[in-house]
Amino acid sequence: MNFQKIPPVDVSKQILELAFRRARIKGKQKNLQGNWLQIIRKKESLKLDIVKESIYQRLEKTRNSFPSTNDLSSFYLKLMQLTLDYPMYKKSLGAVQWSMRKIHTLHKGYVSKINKTKERESIKDLTTQFYGRISSVLKQVDPNFIYLEKARKIMRSYPDIKDMFTICIYGFPNVGKTTFLNKLTGTKGKVAEYAFTTKTINAGYITIDGIKIQVLDVPGTLSRPDTMNDIEAQADLVLTELADVIVYVFDISEYCGYSEKEQEQLFKKTNLEKNVIVYLSKKDLLDEEKIGVFKHKHFTEEDIKEKIGKLAQKYEELKKEEEERKEITEEDT
Q: Among 187, 198, 267, 285, which is most buried by a count of CB atoms within 10 Å?
């Protein structure tokens, strides 16, 4: 899902101002027929219709712009729980839905009252009352509008994860993960010389032998599973939920600020049930002797591409077999 397409969330003041302005403009454009009572009833009812429709459309757009938690994968649900006040998110969407129902009910009730009232001033008073009631409803939801706008800004940083063969680039902060991603995919992630350079999950793509592969560069991770902050937890989430292959990046120059021993400790905690490939970064800062005594077998970018290509091919074959099994099962059913 592309979370960047979620539009800004307006608060009650903006929603009401637009609705009332539309009612004033469009109300003057209608050439209404009938006696004075019929005309004023039609005019005031029209204002209510326009106001209700304008507000309802804005609220509906807000509600529908945010994803329903029922439609999201476990990865996105867990990512939201890590980065948002998840109960407040659900409560806020519920409040928008409540306000839509409330405004629909108020509109129906006040239009009915206007069509039954025979005094000019009483009819206008009913319009004023309706405006006041819907304003009160929307102002009650303002804290929820404000929170949804905050959530939108956070969710805009979420990657657009595809259901495909996925590589996770993993390792300590500032070891060169984003540089490796750039080399592998041709993308241009920003690189800086300090820890937690990557603040969100960066997605890139490569195509090997006709197979499109997703490559995820995750926030720097420290070897502290019991005290992970939100950024570190996002990295761990990608590793457990999405990665088909893990490329573990070592920086044995230790220019990253972490010792080789610390990097080794984190490597041992990597999920070894998955395919793990070691990449040695910053070789230009190392001499041949240092590289020679490094105990793990490591690979160049080209070697890694070749290995990934073979694994991706196997993934696609298994996926095709699974789809064929499902088709046979459905036919039998």
A: 198
